[in-house]
Amino acid sequence: MTRFLACLSLCAMLGACAMVDTAYGPAYGPRGAGFSEYRIEPGRYRVTFQGGPGAPPQQVADYALLRAAELTLAEGYDWFAITDRATSGQPDAGPRLTLGAGGGSHGGRGAIGLGLGTSFSLGGGPALAHSLEVVMGHGERPADPNAYMARSVQESLRPRV
After folding, report:
1. Residue 81's domain spans which residues?
2. Beta strand segments in the chain, E
């Protein structure tokens, strides 16, 4: 029983190490977690946020939206409209703990085996990416449900980072 508890403790510690917070910041390298943007033409960008392993889909989408707002303000615009959005990859379910049991017989004696295991992603790369194509503009926001006032988005999402 002592070995079982020791193994369970070790699995829990390894699982805790596998969960890494996704920090908001620029991506370093093509597979690095963080944001990147590509200028398509003046006032039109593709903004992507790649989450780290275990990043929830809503966090990845919010961080892409925040980056679009920051970029809009940095370029001197007031609002942005999302003309296209895409999500790729699969959210990582994080560490998994499994317990199994089996039985058998050898020489008339029954035997029961008990096993415990854990698994988690060691890929190190982002599991989920969210991309937005945005068009930026000056003045009042257009009457489009996909248009956002950049300053309002930034004030709303920045405290969550």
Report:
1. 2-160
2. 34-41, 44-51, 79-89, 96-106, 109-119, 128-137, 147-149
| pLDDT < 50 stretches in the chain | 5, 7-8, 11-19, 125-126
- CA distance linking residue 115 with residue 13, whole number of Å: 18
Q: What is the dihedral of CA 119, 128, 34, 28, to 10 degrees?
A: 70
What is the pLDDT, as a whole number, of residue 31? 79
3-state secondary structure 128-151: EEEEEEEEEECCCCCCCCCEEEHH
Q: Is residue 77 within 8 Å of residue 85, measured between CB atoms?
A: no
Counted residue by residue, the chain has a size of 161
Q: Give the pair of three-digit tokens for residue 134.
A: 């945005």
Question: What are the tokens at 154?
Answer: 């930034």
